[in-house]
Design brief:
Elements lengths: L2 H13 L10 H10 L10 H10 L6 H14 L12 H13 L3 H8 L3 H4 L4 H7 L2 H10 L4 H4 L3 H15 L2 H15 L6 H21 L3 H15 L1 H13 L3 H18 L4 E5 L4 H10 L10 E6 L4 H13 L1 E2 L5 E2 L12 E6 L5 E8 H9 L3 H4 L6 H4 L4 H10 L5 H11 L4 E6 L2 E6 L4 H8 L1 H5 L1 E6 L2 E3 L11 E5 H4 L23 H13 L7 H17 L9 H9 L5 H9 L5 H15 L1
Parallel strand pairs: 2-6
Antiparallel strand pairs: 1-2, 3-5, 4-5, 5-6, 7-8, 9-10, 9-11
Helix pairs in contact: 1-4, 3-5, 4-6, 5-6, 5-12, 6-9, 8-9, 9-11, 9-12, 11-22, 11-23, 12-14, 13-14, 14-15, 15-17, 16-18, 22-27, 24-27, 28-30, 28-31
């Protein structure tokens, strides 16, 4: 859009003129122009209004026109690095939000999202012209001034955005749309700038998009990041996708056969090809060590019915084509961390080619594509309660955010929390999400700060393990605290808090910050020998409880320490604490010693 176009659009928003009629007086022409709105085909926000009303038919376009007029006036004279008028950017951001299906308030905030940051327009004026809801959204995406905050500006801006999103998630939607348009137009920047912005997008905003479940945005962000970070690989994958011989014909055959099989099984479903996007192909190619792009044919089956129909569809597909062993995943029974739900299977399709099949309900499909945005795009879909779980991670971030005094630490912790690699374990009868590589100590702090500080031992799938053990998907974990272990010991011994060595293996930001907090508040040195003796004794007590046994005195332990070659009982207990010898091994030998002496 040229500068002339913008200025003409601004006049249109205020009331554009109709073509002049022959012999018409100037006053008449002026009155006609003041009384007539331009059509949506000619006004600057015409496409935005059409897109918005396609999804929200009852939306009032007048407020969008008013927001555009203010944004156009405020940004007049400002240009992007591409040379385009700056107003083209907020208009494009609003268009992305409209295509997602966001509400009118979000679109208004998108049009105005840079005004407070880049013009003389104040947040107070914005709240008076619109309302505090729009002002909150705009403030949430307004960056801190680098001149004042220096290197901390970026981290503090992201922290501010996360806090604002805790009150209204639409802040994050506008930010993602803003970054997507900036990435689309990144080609005019220098090579160093392109790499820096793409890297930051990959580290924070892409996983943020994934956590919100907005795959329709994530796919494009993934691809444009690949374009700027790995341009040669992007070009290679793009050529592969463009040149695939017979691909469309083969997918049409797969779709046709699947439809017949579903009809025979009386499953009402829509079947469509589901080709991968460029980044997904590249990622699988690299992960599998393939020399050529690894790209399997894929289809999606969206059933018109309850979740049980997905399993009926799965039976129909497996009855038609032989399933590939080890390639079935049930994300309906066990949803992903962003609440993605679907059945995944791979089969030997026509011509003995491997075909990937995704099976889901209409509601699951909407959630998979739009995530939290689905509540705005499909307000009567009834999925709000289920998708509220997609924001659990945000509530967790807000819990530990206050403990991150250092901006750089906050940003690094956020990157860790947003990591795609996550596991789910079971503790206290519920599923708990942790970063991949998390340990029982991470879990203890997730259950509560006090549980973490007092953590003594853990039992994973029925056996005691070192606290530094990495948990795996589906593990059933029990956490024991110092008070659990000392129930039969000296009850007056105060818990000594976390151990410094935990910082060497914990993975979650929450655990790291709570451990650092404890040591910042306590001046005691590291754990003493007497502490290790006490905690080693408590650990053996916990291990004995697995066998419904206990110790009436220290005599059996003393005898065992002699037999194992330890100079005294205390040295054995320290060895147990330090995991020089495993508690299970000590307990088994202890029971054998006692039973054979009786």
């Amino acid at each position: 859009m040229s500068q002339v176009d913008v200025n003409a659009g601004h006049g249109g928003a205020l009331g554009g003129a109709l073509p002049t009629q022959p012999g018409e007086l100037p006053l008449t022409r002026r009155l006609r122009s003041l009384l007539t709105w331009p059509t949506t085909e000619t006004e600057p926000v015409g496409q935005l209004v059409r897109t918005h009303r396609t999804i929200h038919a009852g939306a009032d376009p007048a407020v969008l026109r008013r927001a555009y007029t203010i944004a156009d006036n405020m940004h007049r004279g400002q240009f992007r690095k591409s040379g385009e008028p700056f107003i083209t950017h907020p208009l494009a951001v609003a268009q992305i939000c409209a295509e997602l299906g966001m509400d009118t308030t979000t679109l208004v905030a998108a049009l105005l999202h840079d005004t407070v940051e880049d013009t003389r327009y104040t947040l107070q004026a914005l709240a008076e012209d619109f309302d505090h809801e729009v002002a909150h959204l705009v403030d949430g995406v307004t960056k801190f001034d680098k001149a004042f905050y220096g290197q901390a500006a970026e981290a503090e801006t992201i922290r501010k955005m996360i806090i604002a999103a805790g009150k209204d998630v639409r802040v994050l939607i506008i930010k993602l749309a803003d970054r997507l348009h900036n990435m689309r137009t990144l080609g005019v920047r220098s090579a160093a700038s392109r790499e820096r912005i793409a890297r930051k997008t990959q580290e924070v905003l892409v996983p943020l998009c994934d956590r919100l479940g907005i795959q329709t945005l994530k796919r494009e962000l993934d691809d444009v990041v690949l374009l700027h970070l790995e341009p040669d690989e992007h070009a290679r994958i793009a050529r592969h996708v463009h040149d695939r011989p017979g691909w469309d014909g083969y997918l049409a055959e797969v779709v046709a056969q699947a439809r017949v099989a579903l009809r025979r099984s009386r499953v009402d479903a829509e079947v469509k090809p589901r080709p991968r996007h460029l980044y997904s192909i590249w990622k699988d190619t690299v992960a599998g060590g393939h020399t050529a792009p690894f790209d399997l044919p894929r289809i999606t089956i969206v059933v018109d019915g309850p979740a049980t129909d997905c399993y009926a569809a799965l039976g129909a597909v497996h009855g038609l084509w032989r399933p590939v062993p080890g390639r079935f995943k049930d994300f309906i029974a066990s949803p992903k961390n962003n609440l993605y739900r679907s059945l995944h299977t791979s089969v030997c399709g026509p011509k003995n080619r491997t075909v990937e099949v995704l099976i889901r309900t209409t509601e699951m499909h909407r959630a998979a594509e739009f995530g939290v945005v689905a509540d705005f795009r499909f307000p009567r879909s009834g999925g709000a309660t289920a998708r509220a779980g997609q924001l659990d991670w945000l509530r967790r971030v807000l819990d530990w955010e206050q403990d991150a005094a250092d901006p750089a630490q906050f940003l690094q912790s956020l990157r860790c929390d947003l990591s795609e690699a996550q596991i789910q374990v079971v503790a206290e009868g519920r599923q708990i999400e942790l970063p991949a590589g998390a340990t029982p100590v991470d879990l203890a702090y997730e259950l509560g700060t006090d549980r973490g500080d007092r953590c003594l031992a853990a039992r994973v799938n029925g056996r005691l393990v070192p606290l530094s053990s990495e948990l795996e998907e589906g593990d059933v974990v029990e956490i024991f605290t110092e008070t659990d272990g000392e129930s039969s010991l000296d009850a007056e011994v105060a818990p000594r808090g976390p151990r410094r060595e935990w910082l060497g293996f914990v993975k979650s930001p929450h655990a790291q910050m709570q451990i650092n907090r404890w040591f910042a508040e306590h001046s005691e040195p590291g754990i003493s020998i007497s502490d290790k003796v006490r905690l080693g004794r408590a650990t053996i007590g916990l291990a004995l409880r697995q066998y419904n046994r206990g110790l009436a005195s220290d005599l059996p332990l003393l005898r065992l320490s002699e037999e194992l070659g330890y100079p005294d009982l205390e040295t054995l207990l320290v060895a147990v604490f330090d995991r020089v010898i495993e508690p299970d091994a000590v307990v088994c030998q202890l029971i054998d010693l006692v039973d054979n002496r009786q």
